[in-house]
Amino acid sequence: MMPEDQEWCPWCKHEYHGQDVCDVRSPSVLEIQAGKEGPSCNCKGQSTHVPILQQAVPSPQKRPVEIGGPTTRLKYGDNYVYVTVNLVKDSPFEVFINVGKAGTDERADAEAVARLTSLWLRSGGEIREVVKQLSGIGGQTPSWESGELVRSVPDALARVLRKYVGENDA
Known about the structure:
By secondary structure, the protein is an alpha+beta fold. It contains 4 helices and 7 strands, in the order ββαβββααββα.
């Protein structure tokens, strides 16, 4: 539920905080779709509000011809997860995850997570956000590796990326 002191713009359907751009992260879009009414902002359709989805989105950086980085092996279930983090200027640029047999759902899911993480990193996204979102995701066969519980393939990726943001396990 949106607090009463916040307003939403009936023309762009996003929360208005008095800035030049509306905030797409607000719950106002869902509330509007549910038929709830809110106070109208002062823009009256004349504002410079532009929904975030219509704003310029950063394009992913092109991949250099040659790139490299460390590969970390973590135990997960009866297998090992291999996470490769390729670096550009000592910062993660892309990741690859290799787990299980080719053609399995586990392998496909791992590839999807790696591709989306790489896209996020190449587009200028914060590594800290990836770590925060993937840490602690549980899977079917958690395993202990070097005194730490690896809960899933995404959790393994978060553990490898954590060293690039300086976070320790809690």
